[in-house]
Amino acid sequence: MGGLGGSGRPPRRRHLSFVGPSAFTVDAIVGDARRKAAVEELDERSRTRSIFSRVLYSLGLFGRVAAVMLAQVLLPSPWLHILRAGLVIGAAVPNPERGKFARTLPALVMLRSYILASSWVVKAHSRSVDFWTRVIPIYVGYKYTQVVAPLMNEARQARMWKKRHEWGAEAVYNLCVELRGFYLKDGQFIGSRADFIPEEWGEKLALLQDNVPPVKFEEIDKVLCSEAQVNSIYQVFKAIDKRPLASATIAQVHLGITRTAKSIVVKVQYDDQESLMELDLRNLRNLASFLQTHDMKFFDLLSVVSEFEAQIPLEFDFIEEASMMKTIGDNLRKVGICPAKVVIPEVEEDLVTRRVLGMDYIEGVRVDDTKTLNLWNVNREELVRSLGEAYGQMILVDGVFHADPHPGNLLVLPDSRVAMLDFGQCKHLDETLRLKLCAFYLSICSKDPNAIAQTFRELGIVLDIPVEASQLRSNYLISIYANGLFDTGPLPDGIDINPFANSSPLREVPISEFPAELFMVLRTMGLLRALCCTVGCEVALSEVFRPFALAGLRKADRHAKEGIVIPSASTRPVLLQKTIMKISEMLTDPDTI
Question: Across the chain, what does the average pLDDT equal?
Answer without folding.
Answer: 76
